[in-house]
Amino acid sequence: MRKVVLVLLAMLAGCGAPFEESAKPEVVTPFDAEYRAASEELGVPFELLRGMGAAQSAHHRIDASRSESGQAGVMGLQPDAIAEASRLLGLPEETIANDDLANVRAAAALVADRRLRSETWNGAALAAAGITGEDLRARWLLKYAKHLKSAGELVPNDLVGAVGSAAAGEYPDAVWVPAYSGNYANGSRGLDDVTHVVIHDIEGSYEGAISWFQNPSSNVSAHYVIANEGDITQMVLEEDIGWHCGNWNSQTIGIEHEGYASDPNSYPETMYVSSAALTRYLTDKYSIPRTRDYIVGHVEVPGATHTDPGPYWEWDHYMDLVGGAVEATLVGYVREDDIFDGPGIPGATVALSNGRTATTDADGYYEIGELVPATYTVTASADGYETVVSDKAIEASGTWWKSVALTASPATGDDDDDDVNPTSNKAHGGGNGCSVTATTSASGAFPLAALALLARALRRRK
Questions:
Q1: Helix axes 79-89, 100-116, angle to 10 degrees
Q2: What are phi and psi of 259, to 5 degrees?
Q3: Comparing C-alpha atoms, which of 425, 426, 434 is closest to residue 18?
Q4: How far is it, in rounded angstroms, from Cα 361 to Cα 359?
Q5: Which secondary-structure segment (H or E) carries 242?
Q6: Is the pLDDT of residue 186 over 80?
């Protein structure tokens, strides 16, 4: 018995550390030196400036001459913010728009100035970024918070406003946020008057574009704006004339996409799928042929001065999606404990994040067809088993496999420690040769199953 106790004590000593929560990995960006220098100079938290750069530009240098969002620099400052920062710092506006350090210093100066006026740190950052409106503020803060490590007010726990609470647009999956009335023309266009769809990239953020189209000084607008995540905002009624592509404005509908023409990673599949569904809706509604003669990039409009959506926009793939030609099928098995060798679980439910579901057959096999390429959250569940949630990226047409192993739920209703399921979804130690699997204490420092075994050994010793 003494040997058992010593072994258990050794388990506790050797396995305590892996159960402690590891530190969050350090985030590194190309502009950390500028964020830190401006922080030290102007007394604005480094984490705030880095979070603001993430929310405004995803740490990209925005070229103001190409931006449809009115933004400039890594901090995505709009013209009125640049003018104000120029007065605060005594720097030329052109320098603030084009020099990385000056751009970050300008944002820091704006935040510091608003902080002196009793704004919260979050409120000061939102004001400097030019983000207004409940929905946009909530979205922006979510992006901003993902890139912060600090606790407290810099990481908003209770965002005001729910993303997507705005009124619906004409397209069923869009929300309605109107552009400033002086940034487009009343058109009263009918179904025969719209002949083309024009694809743009924003050269900036989704929130920045919406804010800019609401700004009376911008003199630009588009009918629809699409985020990386696939969210869509309508800003101009389809019958009206958005100011987005010069001499073709009167016969087109413009769609802006969050991103940067020079970045090969700018256009995720979620955006392609969402945009293609919108374009398919528009071509059906206005009897527009689904060809590249009628679905064009901004660069292809006669007399265009812009080059978007740029070389990384995958036109062939996009047109396949618009035409509905790309369909995939997700198949797989739901099995007990092991996806290869475990017995199949009949009657299990497999649910996708788009609402589609399937029930497994007698062998545990399921199939869900007619899917468009996207990343889906897959939830597998069955009576008596722990539910498993994971993601599956479908990148093209064809058959894609996603098998899932479910573990029997832990038994309940008695105090026998032997009923604890060692493969249940609990915290796992590792990294030092320890293989104990158990829940942790409130502090996350000790494996409770090992403590229970130690207590039992001590009781038997008595």
A1: 80
A2: 145, -170
A3: 434
A4: 7
A5: strand 241-242
A6: yes
Domain that holds residue 424: 2-16+410-461
pLDDT of residue 132: 87
The Cα–Cα gap between 52 and 57 comes to 8
Catalytic residue among 68, 93, 256, 269: 256
List of residues 6+ apart from 425 with CB closer than 8 A: 386, 407
CATH number at residue 258: 3.40.80.10
Q: Hey, what's the torsion of the CAs at 278, 378, 438, 421, to 10 degrees?
A: 160
Predicted TM-score of the model (pTM): 0.69
- The answer to whether the bond into 309 is cis (omega within 30° of 0) is yes
Give pLDDT tens digits for 63-91: 999 999 999 999 999 999 999 999 999 99
In terms of domains, do 275 and 237 share one? yes
pLDDT score, position 223? 98
Q: Which residue has the higher pLDDT, 44 or 23?
A: 44
- Which residues lie closer than 8 Å to 133 by C-beta, 6 or more apart? 177, 210, 211, 214
Rounded Cα–Cα distance for residues 313 and 311 (Å): 6
For residue 336, what pLDDT is reported? 96
Q: Which two tokens stand for residue 109?
A: 């100066």
Structurally, the chain folds into a number of domains equal to 4
Per-residue burial over 426-439, b = 16 or more CB atoms within 10 Å of its CB, e = otherwise? beebeeeebebbbe
Residue 224 β-bridge partners: 234, 255
pLDDT band at 389 (very low <50, low <70, confident <90, very high): very high
Residue 138: pLDDT band (50, 70, 90) is confident
Q: Show the tokens assigned to 204.
A: 């900036």
Q: Is the dihedral of CA 53, 55, 57, 59 positive or negative?
A: positive
Known active-site residue 134: no
CB of 301 within 8 A of CB of 248? yes
Residues with Cβ < 8 Å from 31, sequence gap 6 or more? 50, 53, 59, 74, 100, 104
Q: Which CATH number fits the domain that encloses residue 56?
A: 1.10.530.10
